[in-house]
Amino acid sequence: MQIATPYLMFLGDVPDRLAAKTAYGIVDWRPEWCIGQMRLPGCAADLGIPDLTLPEALAKGCRTLVIGVVNAGGVLPDHWVSEIVAAIKAGLDVASGLHVRLGAIPAIAEAAQANGRTLHDVRHTRESFATGKGTRRPGKRLLTVGTDCSVGKKYTVLALEKGMRARGLDADFRATGQTGVFISGRGAAIDAVVADFISGAVEWISPAADPNHWDLIEGQGSLYHPSFAGVSLGLLHGAQPDAVIVCHEPTRTTMRGVEHALPTIREVIDLTLQLGRLTNPDIRATGIAVNSQALDEAEARALLAALEAEHGLPATDPVRFGVDGLVDRLVAEFPETAKS
Questions:
Q1: Mean pLDDT of the 2-7 span
Q2: How far apart are CA 286 and CA 301, in angstroms?
Q3: I need a surface site. Which of 92, 120, 224, 261 has the fewest CB within 10 A?
Q4: Which string of DSSP letters, residue by residue, matches 267-317?
Q5: Which residue(s) pair with 254 in the sheet?
Q6: Which residues have a Cβ under 8 Å from the Cβ of 37 and sit 6 or more positions away?
């Protein structure tokens, strides 16, 4: 899906910052697209951007109202419906990352049809994907993989996009999750694709490109996670990555939501390369990204130094310490991509 920018971020009356994490992610990485926020009385989240009415947002060129919230069950509260209908009638498209489809709510569906506006259900796609073919295609691809879910795979590729472009490399972020689709304006939520078509969907997200162009593909889940390994494997085969970066959160002992022990970084590297060779025999690991938020700076730097020594790969916290080492390694491994 292609979502028109700029965005007016709708937060409703969410009770805290965490409930608006999708909106915060968009503002963190695409602030130029977020012209303002729309909040209802009692909202406890604040994105730090202007509060705008619908007329004010339209006057500033807003094109899409983004429902930037998450909640249990992915439902749309009844008292938000009239606000969304008003936005549609004012001339805005609407995009949502909730599980409920916007078009399943009669008042919203009727308003969109009557006013010629587009509804984007980011967790669901209208695209019909083919099965993956595994045929090599031009272009370079990097995939983030993880020792677990929610360890920084999306933030790593977004930081890499920024860092690589600053160095003159041709690189684009490719979204495979709902927040990533909002950030890029394009993509597909892979965890909502029928299993047979996951690899094909990733091939669609990252099609043939210039031989020296980098697609930076957002990883999902973990090959070791009993709940999500199927999604991770389909994504790996469809991405055909030339390079993988392993993402890790160092304070966990078990994976999220299950009792299984967290795999080691070495185990993730070895299994990823073994399985990834099915569609790219030349796959290689080029770095380690650590979410060091729970560590103080001295602890974080010591851990990164130890990981570099153990694995022979650059290790960093991309948000805290930048991605220069990761980019240096990519340029060294793929010098042709550094040429203009």
A1: 90
A2: 19
A3: 261
A4: HHHHHHHHHHTTT-TT-EEEEEEE--TTS-HHHHHHHHHHHHHHHSS-EE-
A5: 261
A6: 8, 9, 10, 11, 23, 46, 47, 49, 50, 51, 52
Tell me the HSE value of 282 on the side-chain side, using a 13 A CA sphere: 7
Closest by CA to 125, choosing from 197, 233, 173, is: 197
Spatial contact of 254 and 260, defined as CB atoms under 8 Å apart: yes
Cα angle 159, 48, 321; round to 5? 25
* Type of residue found at 183: I
Hey, is 260 helix, strand or coil?
A: coil
| Radius of gyration over every alpha carbon of the chain, rounded to an integer in angstroms | 20
Say yes or no: 200 and 57 in one domain: no
Assess if residue 2 is contained within a domain.
no
Tokens of 68: 């930037």
N residues, the chain: 340
Please indicate, yes or no, if residue 245 is contained in any of the structural domains: yes
DSSP 58-94: HHTT--EEEE----GGG---GGGHHHHHHHHHHT-EE
CA distance linking residue 221 with residue 230, whole number of Å? 9
* 211, 334 Cβ separation under 8 angstroms: no
**pTM of the full structure:** 0.85
Number of domains forming the structure of the chain: 2
State residue 31 phi and psi, 5-degree precision: -60, -30
* Domain termination site, one of 76, 92, 121: 121
- Tell me the C-alpha distance between 57 and 83, whole Å: 14
Question: pLDDT tens-digit profile of 280-338?
Answer: 999 999 999 999 999 999 999 999 999 999 999 999 999 999 999 999 999 999 999 99
Co-location of 99 and 216 in the same domain:
no
Q: State the alpha helices, DSSP H only, in 138-218.
A: 153-166, 178-184, 198-205
